[in-house]
Design brief:
By secondary structure, the chain is mostly helical. It is about 90% helix and about 0% strand. It has two helices and no strands. The longest helix has about 50 residues.
Length: about 90
């Protein structure tokens, strides 16, 4: 293998690593977005329960279950994003 071939191979390898790093950063950003969504929904659940308790009302379980379903969806998305990230990491090795 000539010198230029080695240079081309090195540039190609660096380009792939940079591309993979960018993809991983994008996935990390999406994971953080889902985590923030979970925190917001959790706060919404907490606020709803507190209001019901303060006003001595029965807790609206159906509404809470609907919000909890959204948390489960976000957690599933996080797991899917983590799998995608692992696949990218495995490709670079």
């Amino acid at each position: 293998m000539g010198f230029m071939d080695k240079v081309k191979e090195g540039v190609s390898s660096a380009d792939k690593k940079i591309g993979n790093a960018i993809l991983c950063q994008g996935l990390d950003s999406k994971i953080r977005e889902q985590e923030r969504e979970i925190q917001a929904i959790s706060k919404e659940i907490s606020d709803a329960v507190l209001v019901d308790l303060r006003e001595n009302r029965e807790i609206d379980r159906a509404a809470l279950e609907e919000l909890f379903a959204k948390i489960l969806e976000a957690e599933q998305k996080i797991e899917e994003l983590k799998v995608q990230k692992e696949c990218i990491k495995e490709k670079k090795d």
